[in-house]
Amino acid sequence: MRIDKFLKVSRLIKRRSVAKEVADKGRIQLNGKIAKSGTTVKVGDELQIQFGNRTVNVRVEKLQESTKKEDASSMYTLLSDERVNA
Q: Which run of H or of E encompasses 80?
């Protein structure tokens, strides 16, 4: 599954176009390497996402083409959510 679609389906980012933009600006790392929007995500991969002054680390637990809002958080495990002081 593409990284931008995973972020949208898992509801880490609300819209796929925003997920694509974030990825293409180099603010997402997949297993320690910068990922573009078309990068493939697999179960067990770790993502680091920079949201302004926040950095979120998650591990991919499962991949689904679509999901209900209540079930979206089961697609990943939150490893850390840190604020970056500027």
A: strand 76-83
Q: Whole-prediction pTM value?
A: 0.85
CA dihedral 53, 68, 21, 29 (to 10 degrees): 60
Cα–Cα distance measured from residue 22 to residue 83, given in angstroms and rounded to the nearest whole number: 18
Looking at the domain 3-83, which fold is it? 3.10.290
Q: Where are the alpha helices (DSSP H) in 1-86?
A: 3-9, 16-24
* Phi and psi torsions of 68, nearest 5°: -80, 155
The helix/strand/coil state of 61 is coil
Place of tokens 């991969």: 45
pLDDT tens-place string over residues 20-74? 999 999 999 999 999 998 999 999 999 999 988 899 999 999 998 888 888 888 8
Distance CA 40, CA 2 (A): 5
Phi, psi (5° rounding) for residue 75?
-80, -15
